[in-house]
Amino acid sequence: MRSVAVALLLPMLLLGACDYYDDPLMTVGGTPAAPEALEASYFAGAVVVYWELGRSWNGEAFRIYSRRISDFDFFLIAEVTNCLDSVCSYEDWNIISNETYEYYVTAIDWDSGIETATDRTVQVAIPDQNPPPAPLGTLVVTLDNANYLMWDSNARISEDFSHYRVYQDSGDGGLILGETDSEGFLDLLAVNGTTYEYFVTSFDTGGHESLGSNRASGTPRPDFHDEWISAFSDNPDQSGFRFQVNDITNPVVDGNDPARHFRLESDGAQWWIVPGPGASIFPSGFPTTALKCGVAADAGCTDISVAPSGAYVTTPLEALDETSYVMDVIGEDGLQHFGVLRAKSLGFNQSGHSIMIFSWAYQLLANNDELGLPPDA
């Protein structure tokens, strides 16, 4: 921004005052106090002109004048009658990229017709108003009562890249969730069992916003770690399991409970996951390094992100260490739900009873197959 003295403007603005006082038939007005502390800056497609009230301001209105520096004359572009806390402003949206504009402000006394100008002009150079590229590859990692969003760094190819803005798609537009300067965002307002759709935009230092990224959705679901159950033959009342919607209800149930989703059986050398009434299991396990990957996961992390399609079975399936198993079960609502359990350790307790230590996740939304990171991520 440049400032230019406006001494040559003042005689022109005050010239009308001499003729005014020479006419005894006209009502004598006053000379308004000149606006002070003139500033202007560009942001997000507009030039904002600021000024302060003169020390003896008496309620006069203000006029804003502007020109491109390539123009000879200034033009009246607006009148302002209200200010807030002694500071006034005006937004000029009628501007063109890669041009420089010059501004000054006057106070006008409507009775006398006298305008008093600021003691200087200000210049503002308008940058290229093209925003950065939109982010690409947005995806959602579903967590327990949270969703984690990730996207690529495509927008950083712009030299003036600044940050990202994350939106939740509400149908009527986007609800702003927050801003970040990294390619990730954790939505802690997400609730288990509800599907949320998101998109992301990028900003440059001039406040220009890109188009939205691809839409990505996720449905948070409970997940728990280091659960354990006993084999049915060793401790029947601690051998059954039922996926739960929260951590309040104990998921470990009697191995004979008709509401169980599975129970653990063992002969001391092998362990089996045995589906309960109305439950079935995908007929093969998946070697994994974690229940879920995504947020701060190791580069080689592997998990089961989506329930596999195909025929699920009701026959027992052998459980192995470091392996994940997907189940198709009936939830409290009587509808189909998917859950995943990952056997962490198969062994024995101090009493010699066979046990399985495992982690698990459960999708609260009926018929939703999301269990973690979306496929092809």
Secondary-structure element string: EHEEEEEEEEEEEEEEEEEEEEEEEEEE
> Tally of extended strands?
27
Total DSSP helices: 1
Q: Provide the low-confidence segments as ranges.
A: 7-28, 373-377
Write the topology of this structure.
Layout: E1 2-5, H1 9-22, E2 36-43, E3 46-52, E4 61-68, E5 75-80, E6 87-92, E7 100-108, E8 115-117, E9 120-125, E10 139-143, E11 146-150, E12 161-169, E13 174-180, E14 184-187, E15 196-204, E16 216-218, E17 223-230, E18 240-241, E19 252-253, E20 262-266, E21 271-275, E22 280-281, E23 286-287, E24 317-319, E25 323-330, E26 336-348, E27 354-362
Antiparallel strand pairs: 1-9, 2-3, 3-6, 4-5, 4-7, 7-8, 7-9, 10-11, 11-14, 12-13, 12-15, 15-16, 17-27, 18-19, 18-20, 20-21, 21-24, 22-25, 23-25, 25-26, 26-27
Keywords:
single chain, 377 residues, mainly beta, Immunoglobulin-like, 3 domains, six-stranded antiparallel beta sheet, 1 helix, 27 strands, 4% helix, rod-shaped, disordered C terminus
Could you walk me through the main structural features you see in this protein, from its secondary elements to its overall organization?
There is one protein chain. With 377 residues, the protein is mainly beta. The protein folds into three domains: 2-125, Immunoglobulin-like (Sandwich); 139-218, Immunoglobulin-like (Sandwich); 223-362, no CATH class. The protein has one helix and 27 strands. It has one helix spanning 9-22; strands spanning 2-5, 36-43, 46-52, 61-68, 75-80, 87-92, 100-108, 115-117, 120-125, 139-143, 146-150, 161-169, 174-180, 184-187, 196-204, 216-218, 223-230, 240-241, 252-253, 262-266, 271-275, 280-281, 286-287, 317-319, 323-330, 336-348, 354-362. The strands form six sheets. Strands 1, 4, 5, 7, 8 and 9 form a six-stranded antiparallel β-sheet that branches. 38% of the residues are buried.
